[in-house]
Amino acid sequence: MDPDFEALRTACDRALNLHGPVRAADLLATIPAGTAVDRYGSGGVVAELEAEVAGLLGMPAAVYLPSGTMAQQAVLRVHADRRGRRTVVAHPQCHLFTGEGGAVERLQGLVGRPAGDRHRLLTRADLDGVAELPAALVVELPQREIGGLLPAWDDVAAQVAWARERGAAAHLDGARLWEAAAGYGRPPAEVAALFDTVYVSFYKGIGALPGCCLAGPEDVVAEVREWRHRMGGTLFGLWPGAASALSCLRVRLPRFPAYLERAREVAAAVRELPGVRVVPDPPQTPLLHLLLATTPEAFAASARALAEGGLWTWAEPATTGDPGVLRVELSVGDATVALPVEEVRAAVAALAGG
Hints:
Strand order of the largest sheet: 2-8-7-6-5-3-4
Number of helices: 16
CATH class of the largest domain: Alpha Beta
Order of helices and strands: HEHHEHEHHEHEHEHHEEHHHEEHEEEHH
Radius of gyration: 20 Å
Number of domains: 2
Shape: globular
CATH superfamily of the largest domain: Type I PLP-dependent aspartate aminotransferase-like (Major domain)
Number of strands: 13
CATH architecture of the largest domain: 3-Layer(aba) Sandwich
């Protein structure tokens, strides 16, 4: 982002996406002054967060880590070592394959086995085509890269059964579990109960400082703690991120049904606009994609004009397989809810060249 555009971002008083532009002062304010600090991940607010997350997910234990990439590498390594297998099965567009630079292969010696079509949801039928015995199945809920889609509840249970029948672990990439739970209309613990282990993020939908938790059986979590140390994640003090996570979790988790309602209101407001397509329509979670029939140059000009008027939208869109179509991801949060739907509609129309 060029410096002038960044200055516009910080000056905006309204935002379309999530909880608004990330500002240091706002994040620091999520750390209570009386926070009890930890020492190398032990005690203090870190222990408090771990206990609260374990309870929210209905799991025996949880451990706080600085990143989801580290958390998932660690737990998949544990599952693989316990089973003497190296293969991890997941959707082709999952974060393991698209956002971690081949870490499970290059650092952990595991083998990623994509299953299913990259443009649609992973299904039990896709898994039936996998002949080798895996160490773990990774299920991402919702599947972010294809629009925040959720598989049918019964199919998720069938996918987990497929893993268990083969002696494999079922692991939930729940970076956006809070969104998925709202979409299913079920508490997070009910979604988590399908799986052996669960990873949840705090800086995404919750809007806290970076950090995450890995939850599961006590013995598995204990091993993940050891891998956190080996991988350099047991910092002298983990309390800032943990305190921010605990504060934001308590404030924002109850709001996710309202975020989902607003996502559907936005979809209804923009779906008939020229050059706009909502994916999926209607949204299944407080996360949706908008496909815009415009050019990068026209999008940039519109985004800048909106920012100059005090409304922050997106720094830049993603490209698609169609050179005449761009994609943006809308994660609904406090800022989106605070913005009148009519203003959202007008902004999307402008970005689509209307």
